[in-house]
Amino acid sequence: MSLDQCLAIVESHFKSSGFSDSEIQEYLKILRAKWDKIEDVIRGENVRKYCFLPSGMELWIVRGKTSEYLIRPLHYCSCTAFYFNTLIKKNEKCCYHILAFIICRQLNNFTTIYKEDTVYFDYLSDFVNS
Predict the structure, then answer these.
(1) Which of 70, 91, 119, 120 has the fewest beta carbons closer than 10 A?
(2) Which residues contact 65 (CB under 8 A, 6 or more apart)?
(3) What rounded mean pLDDT belongs to the chain?
């Protein structure tokens, strides 16, 4: 997957979500700047979707360089970069895990793991407590 193809995927995603051209350019700037890390996530098949049954609740997990992170698409990533750069400093729209997630989801490049509803809170608490 080339940088240009990923730029097109991310641009299309944000356009269809109603983002302005200037907002889209901010996301594309992050993608270009963090391409090496994003490419590692894509190539390493590091995105997992946990689907809990019978409720159908989902948790999305992205494995980064040093840990695994809980993703709420465009809203949240449990990594420290998202916390500091997006929520506290407000100097970036998102972290690279979220952009890698968007690309992998569009390409169906993720692993789906099915679990019983009874373990949902155990999985969720692992990320809340870490």
Answers:
(1) 91
(2) 37, 40
(3) 92
Query: 121: domain range?
Result: 3-128
Number of domains composing the chain: 1
Question: What pLDDT, on a 0 to 100 scale, did the predictor assign at position 130?
Answer: 61
Q: Nearest-CA neighbor of 111 among 45, 56, 44, 43?
A: 45
Q: pLDDT class for 125, splitting at 50, 70, 90?
A: confident
| Cβ-contact 124, 59 below 8 angstroms | yes
65, amino acid identity: K
The reply to whether omega before 73 is within 30° of 0 (cis) is no
- What per-residue confidence (pLDDT) applies to 129? 67
Q: What's the rounded Cα separation, in Å, for the pair 105 and 111?
A: 10
Q: Dig out the tokens for 55 from the structure.
A: 């409720």
The C-alpha angle with vertex 21 and arms to 95 and 90, in degrees rounded to 5, equals 35
**Spatial distance between the Cα atoms of 107 and 127, rounded to a whole number of angstroms:** 25
